[in-house]
From TrEMBL:
Name the UniProt record assigns to this protein: Uncharacterized protein DUF1127
InterPro entries the UniProt entry points to: YjiS-like
Domain of life: Bacteria
Pfam entry (one): YjiS-like
Domain spans labelled YjiS-like: 36-67
Source organism per UniProt: Neorhizobium alkalisoli
Protein backbone atom coordinates (compact mmCIF):
# COMPACT_ATOMS: atom_id res chain seq x y z
CA UNK A 1 0.00 0.00 0.00
CA UNK A 2 1.36 3.40 -0.90
CA UNK A 3 1.12 6.63 1.04
CA UNK A 4 -1.48 7.94 -1.40
CA UNK A 5 -3.80 5.01 -0.75
CA UNK A 6 -3.44 5.48 2.97
CA UNK A 7 -4.39 9.14 2.60
CA UNK A 8 -7.60 8.30 0.75
CA UNK A 9 -8.56 5.74 3.36
CA UNK A 10 -8.27 8.37 6.05
CA UNK A 11 -10.59 10.69 4.12
CA UNK A 12 -13.21 7.94 3.88
CA UNK A 13 -13.16 7.34 7.62
CA UNK A 14 -13.97 10.94 8.59
CA UNK A 15 -17.58 11.83 9.31
CA UNK A 16 -19.40 14.25 7.03
CA UNK A 17 -19.27 17.92 8.01
CA UNK A 18 -22.96 18.01 9.02
CA UNK A 19 -22.50 15.28 11.63
CA UNK A 20 -19.35 16.96 12.90
CA UNK A 21 -21.18 20.26 13.41
CA UNK A 22 -24.04 18.45 15.15
CA UNK A 23 -21.54 16.70 17.42
CA UNK A 24 -19.87 20.02 18.22
CA UNK A 25 -23.21 21.58 19.09
CA UNK A 26 -24.08 18.63 21.32
CA UNK A 27 -20.70 18.86 23.05
CA UNK A 28 -21.27 22.57 23.64
CA UNK A 29 -24.74 21.93 25.08
CA UNK A 30 -23.37 19.23 27.38
CA UNK A 31 -20.49 21.48 28.45
CA UNK A 32 -22.85 24.36 29.24
CA UNK A 33 -25.16 22.01 31.14
CA UNK A 34 -22.26 20.72 33.23
CA UNK A 35 -21.11 24.26 33.90
CA UNK A 36 -24.59 25.34 35.02
CA UNK A 37 -24.93 22.27 37.26
CA UNK A 38 -21.51 22.96 38.83
CA UNK A 39 -22.48 26.58 39.49
CA UNK A 40 -25.77 25.56 41.13
CA UNK A 41 -24.04 22.89 43.23
CA UNK A 42 -21.36 25.38 44.35
CA UNK A 43 -24.03 27.99 45.12
CA UNK A 44 -25.81 25.50 47.38
CA UNK A 45 -22.53 24.65 49.12
CA UNK A 46 -21.70 28.36 49.51
CA UNK A 47 -25.16 28.98 50.89
CA UNK A 48 -24.51 26.28 53.50
CA UNK A 49 -21.59 28.39 54.78
CA UNK A 50 -24.22 30.66 56.35
CA UNK A 51 -24.93 27.84 58.81
CA UNK A 52 -21.37 27.99 60.20
CA UNK A 53 -20.55 30.25 63.12
CA UNK A 54 -17.97 33.03 62.87
CA UNK A 55 -15.17 30.95 64.40
CA UNK A 56 -15.67 28.16 61.88
CA UNK A 57 -15.68 30.65 59.02
CA UNK A 58 -12.50 32.20 60.39
CA UNK A 59 -10.87 28.74 60.42
CA UNK A 60 -11.36 28.46 56.66
CA UNK A 61 -10.25 32.04 56.11
CA UNK A 62 -13.61 33.69 55.53
CA UNK A 63 -15.90 36.10 57.29
CA UNK A 64 -19.69 36.25 57.23
CA UNK A 65 -19.39 39.40 55.13
CA UNK A 66 -17.32 37.48 52.52
CA UNK A 67 -20.04 34.84 52.22
CA UNK A 68 -22.83 37.41 51.96
CA UNK A 69 -20.97 39.46 49.34
CA UNK A 70 -20.11 36.40 47.25
CA UNK A 71 -23.72 35.26 47.18
CA UNK A 72 -25.00 38.78 46.43
CA UNK A 73 -22.48 39.55 43.68
CA UNK A 74 -22.94 36.32 41.75
CA UNK A 75 -26.06 35.52 39.77
CA UNK A 76 -28.20 32.43 40.14
CA UNK A 77 -26.21 30.47 37.54
CA UNK A 78 -22.84 31.94 38.50
CA UNK A 79 -20.32 30.26 40.76
CA UNK A 80 -19.82 32.17 44.07
CA UNK A 81 -17.00 29.84 45.12
CA UNK A 82 -14.59 31.79 42.89
CA UNK A 83 -15.29 34.96 44.88
CA UNK A 84 -15.01 33.05 48.17
CA UNK A 85 -11.65 31.54 47.30
CA UNK A 86 -10.36 34.97 46.25
CA UNK A 87 -11.52 36.45 49.58
CA UNK A 88 -9.86 33.62 51.53
CA UNK A 89 -6.58 34.12 49.65
CA UNK A 90 -6.62 37.86 50.31
CA UNK A 91 -7.36 37.32 53.99
CA UNK A 92 -4.53 34.75 54.26
CA UNK A 93 -2.11 37.07 52.50
CA UNK A 94 -2.98 39.86 54.94
CA UNK A 95 -2.71 37.58 57.98
CA UNK A 96 0.68 36.17 57.03
CA UNK A 97 2.04 39.59 56.10
CA UNK A 98 0.92 40.95 59.46
CA UNK A 99 2.52 38.09 61.38
CA UNK A 100 5.81 38.40 59.46
CA UNK A 101 5.92 42.13 60.26
CA UNK A 102 5.91 41.65 64.06
Amino acid sequence: MSTTECGTEIKLVHQPAVETRLGSVMQLVILRGKSAWRAIRNRLASNALNDLDDYQLDDIGLSRRDVTQALDRSGVLQDPSLLLSKAARERARYRFARRAGH
